[in-house]
Amino acid sequence: MTYFSFTKGELLTLLRRKQDTMNALIFFLMVVILFPLGVSPSPEFLSVAAGGIIWCAASLAILMSVEGMFKEDFNDGCLEQWLVSGLSLPVLILLKVSIHWLIVIVPLLIMAPILAQMLFLPMDIFYVLLQTLILGTPALFLIGTIGSALTVSLRHGAVLMLLIIIPFYLPVIIFSTGAIRAAQSGMLYDGQIAILAAISLASLVVSPIMSAISIKASVS
Amino acid sequence: MSWTWFHKLGSPKWFFQFASRWSLGVFLSGVVLLLIGLVWGLAFAPEDYQQGNSFRIIYIHVPAAILAQSCYLGLGVAGFVFLVWQMKMAPIFIKSVAPLGALVALIALVSGAIWGKPTWGTWWVWDARLTSVLVLFLLYMGVIAIQNSLEDKILADKAVAVIGVVGLINLPIIKYSVEWWNTLHQPATFKLTEKPAMPMEMWLPLLISSLGLYLFIAGLAMLRMQTEVLNRERRSSWVKEEVLKNGI
């Protein structure tokens, strides 16, 4: 196994099992639909709340898609192979998360303009939303990976993982919706965007190492 | 500087003997200090000119809030120690302290809500500090949940250490993010670098009750850790000797 063959294998698995990705995206759509139905369908409310709604839905969808990330590999013994392959485990994990991010975020970004229209989000605010999604979601994926690696040996680990991981998502959600709110009231939002990027970069450093520790503990 | 104390901490046997000498004393002195601080604060300290008597809940609220943060700090540091040096005592510490931390965080939340009613007019506001203590409480619950759910004890120890370290990195981010997000709460009561804004008769009992709660929690944590050490080392010969000689 080399890094290249690993990447190719992961990419192929994800592309051939489109249903998993589809499920996460449908889930995203459904959570978004809950808000107009459950709170209020009026354009005044929705145009203000759209950024927050899309972000909450995206976080939940990402949690769902990240949760089972290592499950298959754990069950069929791939994780052991990673450990004995002589390749660096954090790098392998980073590759895997990056592929997952790419596969989920691209359709999510394609869906975003449609949802923004449905939620009456003005076009100029929509560009801010796009920036926050591109810069903030890597952090969500990376932090989620730690939880997924921790609970990989559990049969019903999903709820436990949500319980552990959601508190760590709060800063990302606060800063991204903060940027959107600042843009809505006509203020500068560069600060929030920069902090989002900083959180993503920090998770890039911490998450592969922590996930590798957890996977090693889970396998042996 | 000698590092022997640090290496000694890695030995459950040494810790057990150390704790059996100190835990009860620490716990009882904590109880005494806490009582002195609370009685002084609740009955004898002067009234606040603005909030009247309702401010007195500060003598419960502030120590609990400080402890909630300190416990998590300790938990995160212990997690780091465990991940780096694989010290046996670190996960025992985490396991014993997490429920205590959750408890003080809950006390801080509840007393804060009770204090908020007369001063702000509501039980709860979505204010930075309240929210960050709530998040802290949730973090503790996560640590407890994962400790209890993982059957494999070695994995459980690793898992709580990982969560502790990630939480330690994340805690300042969470704290500042909610602080920028929304603030209604008054600024921190104790700052190490500044002279307190309260008069001496008001902050001295606060200091005493904070110290008392520290000792109280430390004593409780040591007692809990002793139990945990006995449980984990139950197959070793020194535990057998200890139990046969001194009973449980």
TrEMBL record, chain A:
<feature type="transmembrane region" description="Helical">
    <location>
        <begin position="21"/>
        <end position="39"/>
    </location>
</feature>
<keyword id="KW-0812">Transmembrane</keyword>
<feature type="transmembrane region" description="Helical">
    <location>
        <begin position="158"/>
        <end position="181"/>
    </location>
</feature>
<feature type="transmembrane region" description="Helical">
    <location>
        <begin position="45"/>
        <end position="66"/>
    </location>
</feature>
<keyword id="KW-0997">Cell inner membrane</keyword>
<keyword id="KW-1003">Cell membrane</keyword>
<feature type="transmembrane region" description="Helical">
    <location>
        <begin position="193"/>
        <end position="215"/>
    </location>
</feature>
<keyword id="KW-0472">Membrane</keyword>
<feature type="transmembrane region" description="Helical">
    <location>
        <begin position="128"/>
        <end position="152"/>
    </location>
</feature>
<protein>
    <recommendedName>
        <fullName>Heme exporter protein B</fullName>
    </recommendedName>
</protein>
<dbReference type="Pfam" id="PF03379">
    <property type="entry name" value="CcmB"/>
</dbReference>
<comment type="similarity">
    <text>Belongs to the CcmB/CycW/HelB family.</text>
</comment>
<keyword id="KW-0201">Cytochrome c-type biogenesis</keyword>
<feature type="transmembrane region" description="Helical">
    <location>
        <begin position="78"/>
        <end position="95"/>
    </location>
</feature>
<dbReference type="InterPro" id="IPR026031">
    <property type="entry name" value="Cyt_c_CcmB_bac"/>
</dbReference>
<comment type="function">
    <text>Required for the export of heme to the periplasm for the biogenesis of c-type cytochromes.</text>
</comment>
<keyword id="KW-0813">Transport</keyword>
<feature type="transmembrane region" description="Helical">
    <location>
        <begin position="101"/>
        <end position="121"/>
    </location>
</feature>
<keyword id="KW-1133">Transmembrane helix</keyword>
<dbReference type="InterPro" id="IPR003544">
    <property type="entry name" value="Cyt_c_biogenesis_CcmB"/>
</dbReference>
Automatic annotation (TrEMBL), chain B:
<keyword id="KW-0813">Transport</keyword>
<protein>
    <recommendedName>
        <fullName>Heme exporter protein C</fullName>
    </recommendedName>
</protein>
<keyword id="KW-0201">Cytochrome c-type biogenesis</keyword>
<dbReference type="InterPro" id="IPR003557">
    <property type="entry name" value="Cyt_c_biogenesis_CcmC"/>
</dbReference>
<keyword id="KW-0997">Cell inner membrane</keyword>
<comment type="similarity">
    <text>Belongs to the CcmC/CycZ/HelC family.</text>
</comment>
<feature type="transmembrane region" description="Helical">
    <location>
        <begin position="21"/>
        <end position="45"/>
    </location>
</feature>
<feature type="transmembrane region" description="Helical">
    <location>
        <begin position="159"/>
        <end position="178"/>
    </location>
</feature>
<keyword id="KW-1133">Transmembrane helix</keyword>
<dbReference type="InterPro" id="IPR045062">
    <property type="entry name" value="Cyt_c_biogenesis_CcsA/CcmC"/>
</dbReference>
<feature type="domain" description="Cytochrome c assembly protein">
    <location>
        <begin position="5"/>
        <end position="185"/>
    </location>
</feature>
<comment type="function">
    <text>Required for the export of heme to the periplasm for the biogenesis of c-type cytochromes.</text>
</comment>
<feature type="transmembrane region" description="Helical">
    <location>
        <begin position="202"/>
        <end position="223"/>
    </location>
</feature>
<dbReference type="InterPro" id="IPR002541">
    <property type="entry name" value="Cyt_c_assembly"/>
</dbReference>
<feature type="transmembrane region" description="Helical">
    <location>
        <begin position="128"/>
        <end position="147"/>
    </location>
</feature>
<feature type="transmembrane region" description="Helical">
    <location>
        <begin position="57"/>
        <end position="85"/>
    </location>
</feature>
<feature type="transmembrane region" description="Helical">
    <location>
        <begin position="97"/>
        <end position="116"/>
    </location>
</feature>
<keyword id="KW-0812">Transmembrane</keyword>
<keyword id="KW-0472">Membrane</keyword>
<keyword id="KW-1003">Cell membrane</keyword>
<dbReference type="Pfam" id="PF01578">
    <property type="entry name" value="Cytochrom_C_asm"/>
</dbReference>
